[in-house]
Recover the amino acids of this structure.
């Protein structure tokens, strides 16, 4: 519905709350920055089902080609075979546990990868069915509910635990998504890229939170779409962190740096060094609390109740 | 149940047979200039428009590419020769018929060749099975006639294909396909006729067409990422042999403002020990002879 010219947000999903006027948020040990790294394991389908939606500029293989697009499919598959392991090794080296956004097709068809992520202590969160099928407002409420449930069920079966978080493929949402995610028993969502702290969403009786990503540092947005160089990407990561740390210290408001990375992209040999160096810089600062999405939301909730 | 197209078995880099290259090299480096001809007045078969900017001809875009054959190719040879690189040309085979000086220069250097189709404006999308069979016969015969070499592999023309491509390639006796970007090592591609077809990692990332043309980066950046790629693969290659491909287009890398960066990259890489400077033909043959069966067996065991 078009905005009404009145106070606050033009949607019902959360309150208006500028960062200058909200209760102080402190992280464990008073760290100025909480760092959450979300790794995206998503499958691109050989042929997307009829009626499914995907953005036209979906990244991969430099440019999209007509069917059969062996190049783009296989470029994205690089993440599942090679890139993810480079990234997990890098995170482990810096003492960071990954939060993995995994789609249903990956959970169902890559049992080795699921086991590997669980063995390394990663938190696995919902990421839809496949990257070829985004949630949009074209879906009926029933369709969307079934889609969310399909994703949750696939993860529950594959991992033996119920996912707590959600990050839609390509941040896809309808006008109902936060409410439907909360009703499905999830606790947080990463699609809302509008803050540097978690915040409560107004979805109904169950507590439900946004865990905002910093969109400009999304590797697809930076590297694949804006054509940022590898060296500049590293600089943006470290300078973002430095600013968040300063702001976290000076304002007393703990900041969240939630990054999302695609293993097929930053897991490439020539890119991994940049994220390795950026994480090295962050962790060496001493002012960071590395945590998974659930740990951050849990802490946030404990501070605000 | 495997996901379609079910051509590549899942083999995580953490759990697969270790590859040892000849002389214990860490990195197999192959350099692949795309020697192409784009038609002045092509047929638009309706899937992809070869010259979408204007009604045909598009003299600006046609000559931009043809510059590669008249000038860029020859400039590109200088750093390649200086560093002793034996290329694996991604070849539009009609170039052998149109431009004999280019054919002679490649033959003189004993380059290897993979098919890149007949023209870069003729895509495979609309081929029937029989037309595609005839296409492979044409590619194989044309290469043999002009160079004496047996064709072994293909990068689809303009990276296009059909659902049948791997099967028909294997049927025609080809052993490698380079349209796949899922790995830094060769991997088997499953086909329906008992043939052994492998993917040899070409590059959609270290590719002047992606980096310089599609994505508008500088040649200095291209050199930077090639060195970064090499450094990382060289490090990992101590454990298991890696493949690095640098993909070039003479009309892009052969521009006067870019050529020195190719010299820079090749000088950097070739100064290292443990580099097997080779071709996709040799990588594919070596992999099929030594690792293909082992990889297939290991994938079955993981499944």
């Amino acid at each position: 519905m078009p905005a009404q010219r009145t106070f606050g947000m033009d949607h019902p999903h959360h309150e208006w709350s500028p960062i200058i006027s909200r209760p102080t948020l402190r992280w464990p040990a008073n760290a100025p920055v909480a760092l959450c790294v979300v790794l995206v394991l998503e499958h691109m389908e050989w042929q997307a089902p009829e009626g499914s939606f995907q953005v036209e500029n979906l990244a991969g293989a430099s440019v999209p080609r007509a069917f059969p697009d062996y190049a783009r499919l296989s470029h994205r598959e690089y993440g599942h075979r090679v890139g993810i392991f480079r990234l997990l090794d890098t995170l482990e080296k810096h003492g960071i546990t990954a939060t993995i956004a995994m789609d249903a097709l990956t959970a169902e068809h890559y049992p080795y990868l699921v086991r590997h992520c669980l063995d390394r202590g990663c938190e696995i969160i919902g990421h839809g069915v496949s990257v070829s099928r985004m949630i949009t407002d074209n879906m009926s409420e029933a369709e969307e509910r079934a889609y969310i449930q399909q994703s949750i069920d696939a993860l529950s079966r594959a991992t033996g635990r119920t996912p707590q978080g959600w990050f839609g493929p390509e941040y896809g949402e309808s006008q109902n998504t936060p409410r439907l995610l909360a009703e499905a028993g999830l606790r947080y969502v990463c699609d809302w890229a509008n803050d540097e702290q978690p915040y409560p969403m107004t979805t109904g009786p169950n507590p439900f939170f946004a865990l905002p990503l910093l969109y400009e540092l999304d590797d697809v947005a930076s590297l694949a779409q804006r054509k940022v160089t590898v060296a500049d990407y590293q600089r943006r990561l470290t300078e973002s962190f430095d600013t968040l740390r300063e702001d976290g210290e000076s304002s007393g408001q703990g900041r969240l740096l939630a990054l999302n990375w695609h293993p097929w992209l930053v897991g490439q040999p020539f890119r991994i060094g940049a994220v390795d160096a950026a994480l090295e810089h962050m962790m060496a600062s001493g002012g960071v609390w590395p945590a998974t999405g659930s740990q951050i939301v849990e802490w946030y909730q404990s501070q605000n109740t | 149940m495997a996901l379609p197209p079910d051509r590549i078995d899942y083999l995580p880099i953490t759990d697969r047979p270790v590859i040892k290259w000849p002389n214990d090299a860490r990195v197999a480096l192959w350099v692949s200039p795309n020697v192409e001809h784009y038609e002045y007045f092509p047929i638009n078969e309706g899937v992809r428009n070869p010259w979408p900017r204007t009604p045909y001809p598009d003299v600006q875009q046609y000559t931009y590419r043809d510059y590669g054959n008249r000038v860029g190719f020859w400039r590109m040879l200088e750093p390649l020769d200086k560093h002793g690189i034996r290329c694996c040309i991604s070849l539009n085979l009609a170039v052998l018929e149109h431009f004999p000086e280019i054919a002679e220069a490649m033959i003189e250097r004993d380059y290897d060749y993979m098919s890149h189709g007949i023209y870069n404006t003729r895509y495979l999308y609309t081929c029937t099975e029989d037309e595609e069979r005839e296409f492979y016969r044409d590619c194989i015969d044309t290469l043999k006639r002009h160079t004496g070499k047996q064709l072994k592999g293909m990068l689809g023309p303009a990276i296009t294909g059909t659902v049948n491509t791997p099967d028909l390639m294997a049927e025609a006796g080809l052993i490698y396909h380079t349209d796949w970007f899922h790995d830094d090592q060769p991997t088997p591609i499953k086909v329906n006729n008992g043939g052994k077809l492998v993917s040899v990692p070409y590059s959609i990332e270290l590719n002047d067409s992606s980096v310089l043309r599609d994505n508008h980066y500088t040649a200095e950046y291209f050199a930077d990422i090639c060195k970064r790629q090499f450094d990382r693969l060289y490090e990992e290659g101590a454990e298991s042999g890696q493949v690095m491909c640098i993909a070039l287009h003479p009309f892009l890398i052969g521009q006067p403002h870019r050529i020195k960066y190719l010299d820079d990259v090749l000088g950097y890489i070739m100064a290292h020990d443990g580099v097997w400077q080779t071709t996709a033909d040799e990588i594919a043959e070596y992999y099929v002879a030594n690792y293909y069966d082992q990889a297939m067996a290991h994938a079955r065991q993981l499944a």
Chain A touches chain B through 37 residues (CB under 8 Å). The mean pLDDT of chain A is 97. Chain A has ten helices and nine strands. Strands of chain A lie at 33-41, 99-102, 123-126, 165-166, 188-189, 199-201, 208-210, 255-261, 288-290.
